[in-house]
Write a structure and sequence with these properties.
alpha+beta, 4-stranded antiparallel β-sheet
Length: about 110
């Protein structure tokens, strides 16, 4: 019997690839959790977000992370992301990135 898929065909996943400063992996997780679960993350309020993101840690590098979430509308994500980046104060977890200017998602269409 097949298991339920991670995402739905026709939607897309956004994938952020975060390399944080050496030795800051635990602090990054805490800062990300504080922001994400604060009730102030506007991404959680978008009807285009199908499932909340998950922060994953690379098994080979404790300072390397991926943030993955499912959305139904790329343009809605792009617009909201642009508003968030332009209007919000700098979030603590972004300052922990090796290159904060590289805070860009990869969009991957769900095909099967």
């Amino acid at each position: 019997m097949a298991k339920q898929p991670l995402a739905t065909v026709g939607n897309f996943l956004h994938i952020y690839d975060f390399q944080v400063k050496p030795g800051s992996g635990e602090a990054f997780i805490e800062a990300f959790r504080d922001y994400d679960q604060s009730g102030t993350n506007p991404m959680h309020d978008s009807p285009a977000q199908v499932s909340d993101g998950v922060l994953c840690r690379d098994d080979r590098d404790p300072d390397h992370f991926y943030l993955i979430a499912e959305w139904s509308d790329k343009e809605a994500h792009r617009k909201l992301r642009q508003q968030v980046v332009a209007n919000e104060r700098r979030r603590k977890f972004i300052d922990m990135l090796v290159d904060p200017s590289d805070y860009q998602p990869i969009y991957a269409d769900v095909m099967v």
